[in-house]
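Record type: monomer structure entry
Structure origin: computed from sequence
Chain ID: A
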Amino acid sequence: MGVFENSELSTRVVEEGTKTLIFKRSKLVVIEGKDRNKELEMAQPSLRIGTSENNDLVLSDDTVSRHHLVINEQKGGYLLKDLDSTNGTYVEGVRVKEAFLKPGSVIRLGKTAIKFLPQEERVRILPSEKPSFGELYGNTLEMREIFTILEKVAPSEVTVILEGETGTGKELMAETIHKRSNRAQGPFIIFDCSSVAPNLIESELFGHEKGAFTGATARRIGAFEQANGGTIFIDEIGELKIDLQPKLLRVLEQRELRRVGGEGIIKVNVRVITATNRNLEDMVKEKVFREDLFFRISVVRINIPSLSKRKEDIPGLVESLLNKCSSGKQARIKGISPEALEILKAHEWPGNIRELRNVIERSLTFTEGPYITPRDLIALPTAGKKTATGVLSPLIGHSLEEIERMAIIQTLKANDGNKSETARVLGIAPSTLYEKIKKYKLS
């Protein structure tokens, strides 16, 4: 059961009876110079060394440049790059521009010597005893294993990619990771690659200067700058065009960006969580997704199972959704009848938890008693089928227009005539609702 997997160099699960989470970390220790005994764990996939205060490892050696070198984690290991320093960088006595570090490698810069020490931490993945993690719910073995992984990963700085079908709760999981991290007090910014026109993605992600292109009438701060000090969640990253992928990779590795039309370099300190419902490994093979970017974003990979594969979680999910949705007039709702729950279990849920949430929200607008019954599941196609209990939906015998008209009337009543809220609950645009109201001559 591959709920968790990733590259050979960072964190992975080893199948040896029980899954093992392997964190491959690295530590830098100053062994010679003014800063002797200073240490730094490489929690980030990219680390800078120099005398400037904005470096990760700040040295007081005046023979070291302000921005002397950077070490990036890559598929082949840890790659050191000299940043055109004044006195150069030496690895094992050889001056280098670039070099892969080996365990125990000694890096010399100016009068300072630093030792590179890889470390490894192994954590057995035992299913969490709790059926929840933050606002996430799941009592199946696979979900509780994911919760165990999240407990370990959330406080770290590693990049995470969430994989799974649309509607499985990737955004909520990303937000939960953020809330359980050391960046919880910082911003949580969501950027959906599928909802932005391809020609605007660069501007939306990295920002632009006034006059950068036609229509750029003012400076715009991009998603990465907005997320500075916090977390950015990049949803549907598989939709990102390949010509923009190197620019995203640069931000991830160098933690710096340049706005569209701008000249200055802007430093950003952001944790990145991504999500996709596409197979990025296949996209790498097809040359439409960069392998180096895939490696960078998939330090930790979590595959969220579809709702159809965890139907035993439906009762708990319904209870959780009812607790969130029930308010005001709907506070009288105590739960769901066994017959209605049977209908929910029989449905295949192509829209996953998002579809379940919409069904519950809409059902609350029709429920007149203390429990949701089969007749209230007007939004569910399965409700028209005979279930194990022999229950049939009252929708049978009505035309689609009659059902639609009834849904609009009931939802308007439940929301005291609030058209914006009615449109949201029905999942349609306000303009569409106005057209329907006119069509059915509703006042």
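Annotation 1: Residues 330 and 364 are 7 Å apart (CA to CA).
Annotation 2: DSSP finds 13 helices and 24 strands in the chain.
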